[in-house]
Amino acid sequence: MSMYDSKWQQTARANALGFDWCVKNAVASLQSNELNEAMSWCSIAAHSAANDGFHGMLASPELEDVLLQVAQRLPVVSPSPRNFPPRRWLHVFNTAYALFGHTKLCREWMKLHTQGQQHSVILVSQETPVPDNLAETVRQAGGSILRLDCGQGLAERAHDLRVEAYRRADVVVLHAHPEDAIAAVAFGVPGGPPVIMVNHADHAFWAGRGVVDLLLDIRESGHSWSLENRAISRAEIVPIPLSELDTRMADESQRQEIRRVMRRNLGIPADAVVLLTIGNAFKYVPFPGLDFCLTAEAILKACPNAYLVAVGPRDSGRWRKAGKATGGRVMAVGNQSDLAKFHAAADIYLEGFPSGSLTALLEAAQAGLPVVRAPETCMLPFRSDGIAVSMLAQPLDLADYKKAVIAHVNSPEQRKRAGEAASRSVRDHHCGEAWLNYLRRATMRLPSEHVIYRDPAPIPVQTMQQDYCLACRRALKGRSAADAELVTLLAEASRRGLRNHIALDGQFLKPICSNGRRQDGRFLRGMESSVIDIRLGFKARSIRRRAAAEARAEEAFRAFNKGETSHALCLAGRCCLEDPSWLWDEGLERLFLKSLIGVERCKRLRSYLQGPISKG
After folding, report:
1. Are 356 and 389 in contact (CB under 8 A)?
2. Which of 415, 516, 610, 614 could form an SS bridge with 480, CB 3.0 to 4.6 Å?
3. Ramachandran quadrant class, 289 (left: phi over 0; alpha: psi -120 to 50; beta: rest)
4. How many helices (H) and strands (E) does the chain have?
5. pTM above 0.90?
6. Which of 196-210, 242-256, 566-580, 592-606 has the lowest mean pLDDT?
7. What number of CA atoms fall less than 13 Å from residue 553's CA on the CB side?
8. For the CA atoms of the chain, what is the radius of gyration?
9. Are 392 and 371 in contact, with CB atoms under 8 Å apart?
């Protein structure tokens, strides 16, 4: 694929430099006994590596070591006596949501796992109200919900979490965000209840592997990465739990009535074939060779009686354009709470790409919809896999994907057979007693009490998978990836009020500038001059100025592409005055040189701005 070129490896190297800078700040904070700052720097590093700053590693021994040292400096807690029966499970969240996957997984777990068990939840960073559906599920599970005070520091919350776990749990289950440092510190000492981690972010970097007594992987590709790229041997596969279909969907007459009402509300003819896709909007953001909306347009062009309903994306931008191109037959309806109604209205489920949504696919299959998986050109673990999914046909490429969808559209009998087979496979592994057997077998590996592990150094993710991950996350976003990641890290540090223990200097900046697109020596001097601001706390206004400059540049590119040369020049000039380093951006330079400004005027503008750059 065209995306596999050196720019992605340049991005990864630059991201690694930013990650290392955060870890160095964490070490320096720890040496000053600033525990909250050390944890915050670790959290920023982990958030960077899990998102736009991904650099190929899924774990960091250096970051883990800082968190374990912080854990040892917190007050010691004495465990309370165990309480059997019921067995007390404490599920730990940073933030719980009403709709999204990792909270839903926990709710389904508590609904299925009832006999002789008690389930409670602790929320360590919940700033919004507790979701009603989670509160009701916990109540029915015989437990309670506790929210820690978000006004406290990370270290204080880690200590509170340790106290609560030792007091009220026989087993702790972490459903943590990848950047979480609180749980890693709370359980960073031996003793107390054993700790399970649910690997719901199996495609991303996350912190805390050394405190995990048992890692529950939800599918085969994530399990493979756990063993090799996280170097955790204490891992078992436990599929995502699913509740049985609600009674409305079990009753065929009710289901047909819901189908009629939903189609009427959406403005879809009763005899149309409805394609359904579900996922967060960011999972559909295209890159060359993998454009879901473009593929959907081609499918609907070949199937004039078909409609596509997308749950998650909103009717704007690329989705609105697809709707117009198909005469309104692509419908993006945003997030929805009652997915069963959409399952009832649909005939075929399409897995989105370049990133799939495993839970959404499984629920559609469980409801009896035939499923078309994302093509093999979407790399694992970014498309769906798993023991129940493996029986579904796997398209080889986009052409094969379109062919499979069109075949289902044209054959009601094929749809019926495929839907029944998919539903049976999901029930056999994700529902009721079948799922509980997976959980029972896995938890037999739990130690009697919590242990700390010094795992071997992990190996990086393979280069092509790194590239795919970076492409999915749009890390370049049209500018120097190194510069973008650096500004992101500094902005987050400024937001948290952190002091930079390790100043950014020439030694840090030179490799970044040599990896980015702006390699001009004058740009390097401009970056070095900004170190003065960084050492004083990185002024928030410089972040705003750079953001405004980037917005001007993007607007200039759009105007230039429309042929609005004068307007593009005006915007480009304002961009460079707000942030002179844009003068050495290749894209903006081409805009200057290909337009009325000419080479000589571009050189004079550079010369004029050289003074302000060198003086900072």
Report:
1. no
2. 516
3. left
4. 25, 12
5. no
6. 592-606
7. 27
8. 26
9. yes
Peptide bond connecting 354 to the previous residue in cis, omega within 30 degrees of 0: yes
Q: Is 171 left (phi over 0), alpha (psi -120 to 50) or beta?
A: beta
Residue 99 has pLDDT above 80, yes or no: no
Predicted confidence (pLDDT) per residue in 273-323, tens digit: 999 999 988 899 888 789 999 999 999 999 999 999 999 999 999 999 999
In angstroms, the CA 569 to CA 460 distance is: 44
Q: CA-to-CA distance for 134 and 475, rounded, in angstroms?
A: 34
Give the CA distances from residue 209 to residues 128, 155, 227, 321, in Å, rounded to whole numbers and listed in that order: 28, 18, 12, 44
Token pair for 191: 């003793």
CA nearest 205: which of 188, 239, 181, 233? 181
User: 157 CB contacts (<8 Å, ≥6 apart)?
Assistant: 124, 125, 148, 149, 150, 182
Q: Hey, what amino acid is at 345?
A: A
Q: What is the pLDDT of residues 190-206, one digit of tens each?
A: 999 999 999 999 999 99
Residues 556, 170: Cα–Cα separation, whole Å: 59
**Of 112, 130, 124, which Cα lies nearest the Cα of 157?**
124
| Cα–Cα dist 140/107, whole Å | 11
Paired strand residues for 273: 306
Residue 118 CA to residue 116 CA, distance in Å, equals 7
